[in-house]
């Protein structure tokens, strides 16, 4: 376990192989719909290289809604109670104490070997509750920066399959991104033979 910045903690190998397998199976189901996994289109007309599916609330740049107006007009799948339990366990392990936590949305991103994510803040939530991030599959380079700018200072961390990363407190609104995925580094025993899955659990603060 390593504290990358105040409130930002990396816990390597947090998920067991069985938990990773289970999450991969669930992600395959969620990716089918009711709102299918897709490349998000940005207001600029650009298309994100990652593919995303959401639970509980549908995120699109830069708002959460229950219905995916930008995809197929359907309501996203429910956010399951067991995933909230996993999020609470993740926070307790990362912070070494029980923290009240009621995540109500998950953004699930799939990265193929070329996909990346630019430096950004997670700030469409109306809550400063921590973000819980789980990685499965290929290792990536995860860049965790500061709350002021997209640039330095930042810390580069390799997130491997099973790793947990939590950012809350003074780090909740830090810029972060994924400059690179390392193809072929994942263990096919997770059920994911290529690419990288990342699940972020969040509290939207919406009703
Ligand atoms: O893939 C990751 O590890 C980060 C994902 C992320 O930054 C996001 O979903 O906002």
TrEMBL record:
Gene3D superfamilies annotated for this entry? Answer: Alpha-ketoglutarate-dependent dioxygenase AlkB-like
Keywords, A to Z? Dioxygenase, Iron, Metal-binding, Oxidoreductase
Q: Which GO terms describe its biological process?
A: oxidative RNA demethylation
InterPro entries noted in UniProt: Alkb, AlkB-like, AlkB-like_sf, Oxoglu/Fe-dep_dioxygenase_dom
GO MF entries: broad specificity oxidative DNA demethylase activity; ferrous iron binding; oxidative RNA demethylase activity
Question: Which cofactors are required for activity?
Answer: Fe(2+)
Q: What is the lineage of its organism?
A: Bacteria, Bacillati, Actinomycetota, Actinomycetes, Streptosporangiales
| Domain Fe2OG dioxygenase, chain residue ranges per copy | 102-205
Q: What is this protein called?
A: Alpha-ketoglutarate-dependent dioxygenase AlkB
On cofactor binding, the record's note says:
Binds 1 Fe(2+) ion per subunit.
KW Iron (keyword) present: yes
The entry marks the following residues as binding Fe cation, namely: 120, 122, 176
Please name the source species: [Actinomadura] parvosata subsp. kistnae
